[in-house]
TrEMBL record:
Its main location: nucleus. InterPro entries: Znf_C2H2_sf, Znf_C2H2_type. It comes from Arion vulgaris. Residues 23-50 form the C2H2-type domain. One of its GO terms (cellular component) is nucleus. GO terms for molecular function: DNA binding; DNA-binding transcription factor activity, RNA polymerase II-specific; zinc ion binding. Keywords: Metal-binding, Nucleus, Repeat, Transcription, Transcription regulation, Zinc, Zinc-finger. The keyword Zinc applies. It comes from the Eukaryota. This is C2H2-type domain-containing protein. It is found in: Nucleus.
């Protein structure tokens, strides 16, 4: 099997393969294995743009 340095990574790995998505976004109903993925997804529903390309008029 796959080995992990810490228990948190093992927990996320198990969630992925068991289909568990405990981090839900109520606005659209999507669920995620990891809270960081929820945070990134949440920003797609808002006008938050943390990174901007200044080249090419973007």
């Amino acid at each position: 099997g796959v080995g992990f340095i810490n228990g948190s990574n093992l927990k996320t790995h198990r969630r992925k393969y068991l289909g568990e998505k405990p981090y839900k976004y109520d606005a659209c109903g999507l669920g995620f294995h990891h809270n960081d993925n929820l945070r990134v997804h949440r920003s797609t529903h808002t006008s938050e743009k943390h990174y901007k390309c200044d080249a090419y008029g973007a």
